[in-house]
Structures
1.
Amino acid sequence: MEIIEGLPEYLKYKNPVITIGNFDGVHTGHRKIFRKVVDKAGEIGGTPIVITFNPHPVRVLAPERGMKMINTLSDKQALIQGIGIQVIVCIPFDRAFAATDPDAFIREVLVERFGVKWVIVGHNYLFGKGKKGTTALLRQRGRKYGFKVSVVRYAKVNDDIVGSSRIRSLVLRGRVCEAARMLGRAYHIEGIVVRGGGRGASILGIPTANIVSPNELIPKEGVYAVRVSIVTPHPSPLTPIVYDGIANIGKNPTFGDVPMSYEAHIFGFSGDLLGQRLRFHFIDRVRDEKKFPGVQELKDCILRDMEKARLILSRRNDQLFIK
C-alpha cells in the first residue's frame, strides 16, 4: 500500500474509486465502506483509495472537546491496508482547509487532481466549509463531471448504530466487550515495557510488564482479561506471539501511588520483556480497581482475578490486531 502525505498535484492511478473520511477506529461501519470500495475497484478495473485527514478535524475546529483518538495514525493506516485499500492520501487538516468550499473540493481535488471515477461514502457524510457538502451534492456534481456515487448505510450491532463516538464512550466506561463488537476486534493499546515499582514480583510474587503507551484512549481504571501480543516478537517476526493475561489500569491505591500505570501479568511467561513493545488486547472487564487493607488481601484478590480471567479467555475468540 502507498501512503501519500499531503495533497498531491495529481494522482496517476487507473480509475480511482475513492472514499473520504476520518475513519478513527476503523470499525465495522468503516470496513463496510472499504469493502465496497475494494469491490467496486475490482469491477471497473480501478484503484481503491482512501482520503483521510490528520489531525482529526475536531482537534482543529473544537479543541476544547479534548477528543481522544481510538487509534494511533500508524495503526489506522495498517488496519486500512489490511482490508485491501491500495492508496491512502493523508491530507493535513487546518482551518484554511476547513474553509474549502464543497464545490471547490469536488472540482479541484476529486476531479482535477485525482480523476475520480467513483466516490463511495457513508450515509451521513458531510464535507467542506460549514459541512455544507452532502451526498446529494456529490451525486449532482457526479452527473456534471462524469463520476458515480454510492452511499453506504451505517452498520449496526444489537440495534445500536456503530460510530466512533459510541466506541470512545464504551471504552472510557470500561465496556470493552461491547466496544469490541463494534470494532470487529478487541480494543488495544500498546507501548514499550519499562521498569515499574517491582512490587508485582518482589512483594506479590506476580510479575507484571509495565508499558508507556502513546495511545490516547485508555479504558476505565480497573482489571481486565487481556491477550498480550509481542509487537517485536522473538525469535521470528513472521510468527505472532500471543499470550493470555490479566491487566490493571490504574493508580495502585493499596500502595498509595498517584501516577497512572498500565501493566499486565502474562500467564506462563517468564522471560525479560524490558524494552519490548507489547500490545494489550482488552477482552473483558473483571472488576473495578479498589484499595485493599493489606498486601495479602490484594494478592488473594489478584489470584481470584486470574482465575476469572482464564475462564473468560477460555470462552472468547475475539479478533486481534496483529501486524
2.
Amino acid sequence: MEAWAPFYQLDAFTEEPFRGNPAAICILPTNLSETLYLSISGEMNLSETAFMEKKGEGVYQLRWFTPLREVPLCGHATLAAAHLLYYHLGFTGDRIQFNTQAGKLFARKKEDAILMNFPSNPPHPVDPYPGIIQALGIKEWLDIQYSPRNQKLLIRLDSLEDVKEVKPDFKAILEAENPLGWRGVIVTSEGCEEFDFVSRYFASYMGVNEDPVTGSNHTVLAPYWGKILGKSQMRAYQASKRGGVIGVEEDGDRVNLIGHSVLVLEGKSRYA
C-alpha cells in the first residue's frame, strides 16, 4: 500500500523567496529507518531535510538529514519548521518545544520573526592545521578555534573581502588532516556598518560544499564575537551566494537566533 506524507520547502533566514537557505520539512514519524530518511533527503537534495512528528501540545520530535547523513543540530531547518507551524499549520501556542539529538530547542514568535533558543557552543583556541588552511586557499588568518560540542572549526580572517574571496578546493578539504573530527569549517571576520560579523561555511564532509546560511554555526559565532566585540546582541550575515541575515542574542549558556522564513513549495512525499 502506498503511503504519502505532506512536505514543505521554505527558505530560511530571509524575507525573500529564493534567498537564504532552503529546507524541506516532512511531516512524518521520526522512528522509521535511517535508509528511508536518507532516501527522501537525497531526493530533496537540499542541505537539510527535517522530519517532524507531533508528540504533544506544542511539542514536536525533530530530526535533520543532509543527503549523506543525519546531523545533530540544524538551525535553518528548525527555523523553517517553527515558521511553518506558526504561519501555515495553525499553531497558536506561546512556545514550541522541539525534542532533538541536541536536546530541547525552543521557538516563539518575536514580532514578525521567529526566535529560537539553542545551547551555546563556545570555541577554544587550537593549533593551526596547514592542510585545511591550504585547502581553503587562505594565505593569512588571525585566529583559529574549535567548538567540540558543535564539531566546527572556526578560522577568523581580517575582513569581509577576505571572507568573500575564499575559494575552497573541496576535494582537498576532504583529503586534509582532520585530527579533531570537525564536521565543517567556518570562516569569519568582523562585519561592516550593517552587520557585526560575517561568515561562510564549508561542510563537504556532510555532503554540503558550501551551506547558504547556517543557524547552528551562530551558536559558536555568538559567544566568539560577543567576547571580542563586548556585545550580547548582534546582527550577522552569512556571505554565501544566496546570503542570509541572523539576529543573535547571548542568553547565559544558551543563544537566541532570530530570523524570517518564506514558504516556497508544498506537496506530498511518498515513503512506502
3.
Amino acid sequence: MLAARPVRFEYPDDFEVVWSRRNPEIACVANAVSLSMPYVEPLVVRATRDALAALGDTALAGRARAYAAQEANHLGQHRRLNERITARHRTARLLERVLRSTYAGLERQRLSSRTGLAAGFETVAFAAARWVDPRADRLFAGADPVPAGLFLWHLAEEAEHRGVAYDVHRAAGGTHRSYLAGLIVAFVLLGGFTLLASLALLAAAGRWWRPVAWWRLASWSLSFLFHGGGLIAVSALASHHPDDFDDPARLSVWLDDYDAERRTLAPWPAHRARR
C-alpha cells in the first residue's frame, strides 16, 4: 500500500548550494536533477489525475491517487531547494527557462502520450534509484544531510511506486508503443538536461578545470549507462513489467523508519537491508 510521507527539509540561512565539500560534483549533479523536478513532476501528476476517469472505482485508482500525492510532495521540496540554487546562480535561472518551454510543449500532448511519458520518467527514476542504492554511502559521504536526505527520500519513493504509472498508462488505453516512445523521450530529456546543467553548475562552482571533477562525472556516467541503461533496456521489452525488478536493498527498508508524527526519516545510512 502506497503512503504519502510528507517530509519537510529545512535549510539554514547560510546553506551552501555546493553542499558536499568532500564530493562537490555529486552536489552539482543532484542540483541539476532537482532543477528538472518542478517541470517533470507536474506533468506526471496531471497525466495520472487526468487518467483517473478511465480507472473507475478500482484498487489501481487508489494507488494512482497515492502515487500522485507522493509526487506532489517531491515537487514541493525540490522547489524549495531550487529557490536556493537559482538565488545563487544566474545560469540556473536560464536553464529553468529552457525547461519551462520544453515541458510546456509536452503538456499539450494527448493523454496516452502523457501517461506513456509519465511511465517512462518513472522507469528512468527507478533505474537511478537502483544505481544509487549500493553507492549512496560513497556518493553522499560528508554531504549536508538535508539535501542528501531529500534525494534519497525521493529515490526511495520512486522505487516504491515504480509500477503505478505503467499500470495507469495501460489501464487508460495506452499502448506499449506509446510507453516506449515516452521512455525514450524521458531518458533523453532527463539525461541530456542533467548533463548540461551539471556542467554549468560545475563551472559556476569553480570545478571546471579540476581533473577529479571530470573523472568523477565520466565514471558515474559510464557506470549508470552500463547498469541503469541495462535496466532501462529490459524495461523496454513488451513482456516486462516494472514490478518484475527487485526493490533496492537499502532505500526500500529506509522508508520503514518514517515517523509520521514528526514527519521525519531516520538519518542515512539505513541500518538494515533486505535479505
